[in-house]
Amino acid sequence: MQRVILHIDMDYFYAAIEEREKPELRGKAVVVCMLSGRSELSGSVSTCNYIAREFGIRSGMPCSRAKKLNPEAIFLPVRKEFYTSVSDRIMEILRNYADPGENGDSFEQTSIDEAFLEITDRTEGDFNLAFELGMQIKEEIKEKEKLTCSIGIGPNKLIAKMASSAKKPDGITIVSSQNLEGFLWPLKVSKLWGIGDVTAKKLQEMGIVTVKDLAEYDVIKLISTFGKARGTWLKQAAAGIDDSPLKEREGSEQIGRIATLPEDTLDQELIFPLLEMLAGDVIEKLNLRELSFRVVTFTAINSNFRMYTRSRTLNHTVSSKEALLEATREILSEFLSENRTELRRVGVRVGGLQKKKGQKSLFDY
Ligand code: TTP
Ligand code: CA
Fold first, then answer.
1. Which 8-state DSSP code applies to residue 62?
2. Which residues, other chains included, contact 200 with Cβ-Cβ below 8 Å and sequence gap of 6+?
3. Long-range contacts of 114-117, Cβ-Cβ distance < 8 Å, separation of 24 or more
4. 260-269 pLDDT, tens per residue?
């Protein structure tokens, strides 16, 4: 199946949150500053909204310089803890859209406002479905957090990441294997994710300006200049090749399975046996790694390809198949009582994972 990766990047994140919190900022240039406290405006710009960017204000520049570029701009101090709480909620929304993680990690948060989602299973390798899913994500974040984001979808992390910055703000860009070269090759090499200023400068000295130039360059020469690993990587990246897996942050891993029903249905007696089988697989994986779980999540995709998730946090950490089945059955019945569209795919996953505790000794009681 064609791999499908989604990358999401929130738009002007800190400044967008400030705008949301203070409607009077709408339409004004907003600059969020990391102030050093030495004097007023001694510090650097964390970020700014798009209006401020029109004046040439950028992340990293001294706040005093930003003030010169636009004296009318509103300068606000960074509220990192607050932004982190918003980020945590967004990441929870996003995780629900990633594959259940059957073949390893499927969700990777890379910064406060960026994440990769593996959606190969969810979309069955179909980029049109991936687009629908991307739009659904945008809608949910806009509805729940009143914020916009930009999304890139591609056959790997490299392409997804580059696609998400192609249209900003509030964009969505799909790059499949078919239009990969059309997207990648006209770009300047400095735009290739993983190429910094030093490499870009060296490449330019070699006469390599666009990604196409790099893709067509002799790999042996690249290796002799950059070394084996880096030289090979450059050549592959220029061709849009990247096999790197997603890496879950430690402690937030989830394990799950999803599968297609034999027919679209709302009949619990048809749906539950499939969930029972999937739950069995999940328990097997947990046992192998001696893990127990605390959170159970049911996922469903209906015949209109809309996705739903319902989670339940248990009172204790457990590890038995019975406990998983009981929770799953309860969530399923509840879901079916309020849902009217037939289901096409269902899945179950567990989170809140912990190493199983050893047998208690008699003295512990
Ligand atoms: P970015 O995603 O780089 O920028 P952004 O979200 O503000 O704008 P864009 O629409 O271009 O994506 O960074 C995310 C947040 O990280 C940003 O809102 C503020 C913070 N940040 C800093 O504090 N310092 C920095 O130098 C950068 C680049 C970001
Ligand atoms: Ca961002």
1. B
2. 188, 189, 190
3. 114/7, 114/8, 114/9, 114/10, 115/7, 115/8, 115/91, 116/5, 116/6, 116/7, 116/157, 116/160, 116/161, 116/246, 117/5, 117/6, 117/7, 117/8, 117/246
4. 999 999 999 9
* Predicted pLDDT of residue 348: 95
Confidence of residue 358 (pLDDT cuts 50, 70, 90): low
Residue 339 reports pLDDT greater than 50? yes
Residue with CA nearest ligand 1 atom 29 = 46
CA-proximal residue: ligand 1, atom 8 (nearest): 12
Query: What pLDDT score does 359 carry?
Result: 40
Residue 273 preceded by cis peptide, ω within 30: no
**CB of residue 254 inside a 6 A radius of ligand 1:** no
**What integer is the mean pLDDT of 48-74?**
96
pLDDT tens, position by position, 294-335: 999 999 999 988 889 899 999 999 999 999 999 999 999 999
CA dihedral (128, 134, 139, 144) in degrees, to 10, reads 150
CA atoms within 13 A on the CB side of 178: 4
Report whether residue 264 contacts ligand 1, using a CB cutoff of 6 Å.
no
19, 108, 114, 248: the catalytic one is 114
Ligand 1 within 6 A of 230 CB?
Answer: no
CA distances from 321 to 55, 66, 81, 298 (A): 59, 59, 38, 15
pLDDT at 104: 64
- Residue 362, pLDDT above cutoff 50: no
Taking the centre of ligand 1 as the mean of its atom positions, its distance from the CA of residue 46, in whole angstroms, is: 6
CA of 149 to the centre of ligand 2 (A): 8
